[in-house]
């Protein structure tokens, strides 16, 4: 979900000790004294809750800086204060820490006038009301979408994580009942007021965390409950944890809420300061999206990389071993995906050393646990612009390993692809990140600009050299194609294009051949055909880009004037022979049929058509040649047809030519009135009599 609201409610139960302490060493007051004593400070439920919320927010902010937004609030018996807001500048862990610092120590005493035994519920209900209102508010992304005219309102789905201390199941049922009524009332208020600053809550997922301490006086009978739909707009999940386990349980919840996974990097060599420079191996836990191990778990080595060292079987981790980094440039080129990572424990010394090592610009190769002597590198840990990423490498066959030859693709063996030109096209249209203000909807998105530029560059882009001449004749055309493809054209550039076209015209007039590269498909073609193909391609290119500017249109007009005077464009073009529906030309069919008639006459019989009618000499008025015949010749057969098929076609064509054509067809597509004399004076009385 995009929106998450976290509320910490401090009541009279939150001031209890959680049973987890921090030990401090207190040294002697005098300088020469070496005596020291230790003192233990026990944390409260409130301190454990703040620590867990900070870790939850840190993981979300590190892994989803732009996708997910969080709003945190703290409430006690006296006040309800937001820790941060939906604004982009407040979506960082420093803002959340400063917000808790401003909130200060909460007031744990119940307010005056509260019901006896129910005073601990006042902060909870007040915080729940604030969470529902906060969920209805617009985030930066939602505000940008709603402010754009013509766009449908976005869906408003969010999660409320409520951390508090309750007594029994009755308190839980009351919380669920209150949030259902609050969501319903909030939606009705938004509809009645037509408030554009708020959105209707489509769905709210309540995650209620009850925190208690070990003493028996504060133990509750609240049991964990899975996610359950309690109303059409609200679903609820209940958890009950001891305060000292709240941090660990919140790390598990953030993995469940955002589909995260933990990778344990083992065998990290580190030097020990206390052991005389000797090195020891340590482990570091990294959190990331679960998709980073999708290919690894599908492979044959997937079962060996899963570790379930913890008691909770749902928190299985993936174990990868540190591999000595030598040269990771080749492996980085074969990466299929990259995911942000964040450490599970940011304060441990092994984690700090690993993070500093990666941020220094070095890459760490991670290999799967070995089943044999073969080393299988599956991931690479590296940094980009101060952010650490986990790159995935195919553990089976790399996607870019031994690519097939481009000449062995579709269409047979083709070796004249414009590979170098395609490389330049890719470089000119490479994509790069661009900063976008999510509070504003741009008139044209960067993606649309990129697609428009790519369409402009590939509007005329032959794939092979055999289909083009203007991209092979670099000596004659100079930079003419590049100037035509420009979005704008200056007067000197227009004059340069005219000079190139004039020189090409003079070269054709002087009967000079084109400098076509050796081995080209157009090498053996006649000179006039080469010039004709070149002029036709130039016309097509200029037509495609004539709408760019006024000078492009002037260039097209000049090109058309020059091509009208070219000798190659004045010659009559050869028209290909018209083929019949059987695949043979009309001349071939006529020749085959004459052979059949000659064979029949030699046998002393009459003509095959059974009459003395000559179909090729019929010139009656209104006769129209068959539509599949070129020049009046009928459609007969191709050389491979049998005698029966040729005789059948001959009879059909002869029958079509024996009758006079219907007069209505001679007028094309015009409407012809039928039975004009039907209503004349001679016929009308008969019709009336009937």
Structural commentary:
The protein has 690 residues and is of the alpha/beta class. It folds into 4 domains: 3-25 and 38-257, Rossmann fold; 260-392, Ku70, Chain: A, Domain 2; 459-570, no CATH class; 586-667, no CATH class. The chain has helices spanning 45-63, 93-103, 122-136, 140-146, 169-193, 246-258, 294-298, 329-333, 349-359, 419-428, 446-457, 474-477, 480-485, 491-509, 527-544, 550-565, 567-570, 586-602, 643-658, 684-689, and strands at 3-9, 17-27, 36-44, 69-75, 80-82, 157-164, 203-212, 225-229, 234-242, 260-271, 279-289, 306-307, 317-323, 337-340, 342-343, 364-367, 377-384, 387-392. The strands form 3 sheets. Strands 10, 11, 12, 13, 14, 15, 16, 17 and 18 form a 9-stranded mixed β-sheet that branches. Strands 5-4-1-6-7-9-8 form a 7-stranded mixed β-sheet, with helices on both faces. Helix 3 (122-136) packs parallel to helix 5 and helix 14 (491-509) runs parallel beside helix 16.
């Amino acid at each position: 979900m995009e929106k998450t609201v976290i509320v910490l409610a401090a009541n009279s139960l939150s001031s209890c000790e959680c049973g987890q302490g921090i030990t401090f060493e207190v040294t002697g007051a005098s300088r020469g004294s070496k005596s020291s004593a230790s003192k233990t400070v026990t944390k409260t439920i409130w301190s454990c809750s703040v620590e867990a919320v900070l870790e939850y927010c840190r993981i979300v902010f590190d892994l989803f800086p732009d996708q997910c937004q969080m709003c945190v609030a703290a409430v006690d018996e006296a006040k309800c204060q937001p820790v941060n807001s939906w604004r982009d500048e407040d979506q960082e862990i420093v803002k959340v820490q400063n917000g808790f610092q401003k909130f200060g120590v909460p007031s744990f005493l119940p307010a005056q006038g509260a019901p006896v035994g129910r005073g601990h519920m006042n902060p909870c209900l007040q915080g729940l009301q604030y969470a529902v209102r906060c969920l209805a508010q617009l985030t930066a992304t939602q505000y940008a979408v709603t402010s754009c005219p013509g766009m449908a309102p976005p869906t408003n789905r969010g999660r409320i994580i409520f951390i508090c201390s309750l007594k029994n199941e009755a308190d839980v049922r009351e919380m669920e009942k209150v949030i259902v009524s609050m969501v319903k009332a909030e939606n009705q208020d938004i509809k009645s007021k037509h408030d554009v600053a708020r959105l209707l809550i489509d769905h709210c997922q309540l995650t209620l965390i009850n925190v208690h301490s070990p003493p028996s006086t504060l133990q509750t009978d609240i049991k964990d409950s899975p996610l359950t739909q309690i109303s059409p707009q609200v679903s609820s999940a209940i958890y009950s944890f001891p305060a000292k386990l709240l941090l660990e349980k919140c790390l598990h919840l953030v993995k469940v809420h955002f589909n995260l996974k933990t990778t344990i990097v083992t065998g990290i060599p580190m030097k020990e300061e206390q052991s005389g420079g000797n090195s020891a191996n340590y482990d570091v836990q990294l959190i990331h999206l679960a998709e980073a191990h999708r290919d690894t778990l599908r492979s044959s080595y997937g079962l060996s990389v899963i570790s379930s060292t913890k008691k909770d079987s749902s928190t299985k981790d993936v174990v990868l071993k540190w591999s000595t980094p030598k040269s990771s440039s080749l492996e980085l080129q074969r990466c299929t995906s990259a995911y942000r990572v964040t450490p599970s424990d940011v304060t441990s010394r092994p984690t700090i050393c690993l993070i500093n090592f990666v941020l220094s610009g070095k890459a760490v190769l991670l290999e799967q646990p070995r089943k044999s002597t073969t080393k299988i590198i599956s991931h690479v840990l590296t940094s980009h612009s101060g952010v650490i990423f986990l790159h995935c490498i195919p553990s089976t066959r790399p996607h870019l390993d031994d690519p097939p030859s481009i000449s062995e693709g579709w269409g047979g063996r083709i070796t004249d692809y414009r590979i170098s030109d395609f490389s330049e096209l890719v470089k000119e249209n490479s994509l790069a990140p661009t900063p976008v203000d999510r509070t504003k909807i741009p008139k044209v998105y960067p993606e649309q600009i990129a697609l428009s530029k790519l369409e402009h560059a590939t509007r005329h882009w032959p794939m092979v050299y055999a289909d083009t001449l203007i991209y092979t004749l670099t000596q004659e055309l100079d930079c003419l194609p590049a100037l035509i493809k420009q979005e704008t054209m200056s007067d000197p550039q227009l004059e340069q294009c005219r000079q190139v076209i004039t020189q090409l015209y003079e070269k054709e007039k002087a009967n000079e051949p084109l400098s076509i590269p050796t081995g080209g498909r157009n090498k053996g073609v006649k000179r006039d055909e080469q010039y004709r193909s070149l002029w036709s391609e130039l016309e097509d290119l200029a037509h495609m880009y004539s709408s760019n500017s006024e000078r492009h249109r002037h260039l097209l007009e000049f090109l058309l004037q020059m091509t009208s005077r070219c000798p190659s464009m004045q010659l009559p073009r050869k028209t290909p022979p018209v083929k019949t529906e059987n695949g043979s030309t009309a001349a071939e069919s006529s020749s085959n049929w004459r052979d059949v008639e000659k064979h029949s006459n030699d046998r002393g019989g009459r003509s095959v058509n059974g009459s003395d009618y000559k179909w090729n000499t019929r010139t009656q008025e209104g006769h129209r040649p068959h539509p599949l015949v070129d020049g009046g010749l009928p459609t007969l057969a191709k050389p491979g047809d049998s005698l029966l098929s040729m005789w059948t076609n001959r009879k059909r064509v002869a029958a079509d030519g024996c009758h006079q054509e219907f007069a209505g067809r001679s007028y094309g597509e015009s409407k012809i009135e039928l039975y004009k004399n039907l209503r004349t004076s001679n016929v009308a009385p008969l019709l009336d009599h009937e």
